[in-house]
Amino acid sequence: MQIDPDQARADRRTGPRLAAALGTTTAAGFAVPGAGELAPLSHLVIHAQDVRQPLGLPALSGSGAAVRVLDDITGGRHSVGERVLGGLRFTATDVDWASGESGPTVEGPSAVLLSALNGRDGSAATLHGDGAAEPADRSRTAAASGRHRAALPPVRPGAAGAPTGSR
Predict the structure, then answer these.
(1) Are the CB atoms for 13 and 21 separated by under 8 Å?
(2) Which of 55, 86, 115, 118 suits a disulfide with 82, CB 3.0-4.6 Å?
């Protein structure tokens, strides 16, 4: 699916009209090569926070979905790794979840912890503890060095696993 940037900027639909248009979009599914079964859930939870944070909306926290994604990125198949996690103690303030043995603490809502662990700049301001700025800083450094799981190759439109849909 190609998006014409000029057409997108000229689109003046209201929120309800955009929601209705999105509701009629068809998609073949979500498949990022090598990403695994939690990828759609991870993307949904993390990108929802990407949208909510700059709009000043509270994090959608406290869900079992966030716990599953936190478990996966801190110790599962898609862990962000020791470069991001090492020497820090993470604690969610809205669900029963913690990771890490000892060290500086990083505390906050589960959705905000997910954002920080994925290198989102705005997340540190919402976190508490003496290690609050560390996850986002470390994640960005790891991604820049190419030693981070987020460095997936781009998917060409029309390739296997590429998103599809219509307007």
Answers:
(1) yes
(2) 86
